[in-house]
Design brief:
Blueprint (H helix, E strand, L loop, with lengths): L3 E2 L5 H6 L5 E6 L4 H16 L4 E6 L4 H6 L7 E6 L2 E7 L4 H7 L3
Parallel strand pairs: 1-3, 2-3
Antiparallel strand pairs: 2-4, 4-5
Length: 103
């Protein structure tokens, strides 16, 4: 699957109403660690099809960042059945991210 860009307009449909777990990468274009993490998230998106991989640009969607109380980026959040089940802050190795999504 490809990475899905989440906005306020598609958040409910793509995340809250998803029939599979969702990994959200909160990021910003000016964030160096986010640039390091992004290719890893993209790679995972190409390898898994039973988890929805999404990204939220905190500059474009400050209300969504606030809703999840994202204070530092990058932040990864796993949503299952509309509720947050796991979270990590900072750059994570691929294995740790796969562990977050049960791989």
């Amino acid at each position: 699957m490809s990475v899905i860009t989440i906005t306020s307009a598609n958040f409910e449909q793509e995340v809250l109403n998803s029939n599979k777990p969702v990994l959200i990468d909160f990021w910003a274009s000016w964030c160096g660690p986010c640039k390091m993490l992004s290719p890893v998230v993209d790679e995972i998106a190409g390898e898994v099809d039973d988890v929805k991989i999404c990204k939220i640009n905190v500059d474009d969607e400050p209300n969504l960042a606030s809703k999840f109380q994202v204070m530092s980026i990058p932040t990864l959040v796993v949503i299952e059945n509309g509720a947050e089940v796991r979270r990590s802050v900072g750059v994570q190795p691929k294995g740790a991210i796969l562990g977050m999504i049960g791989k």
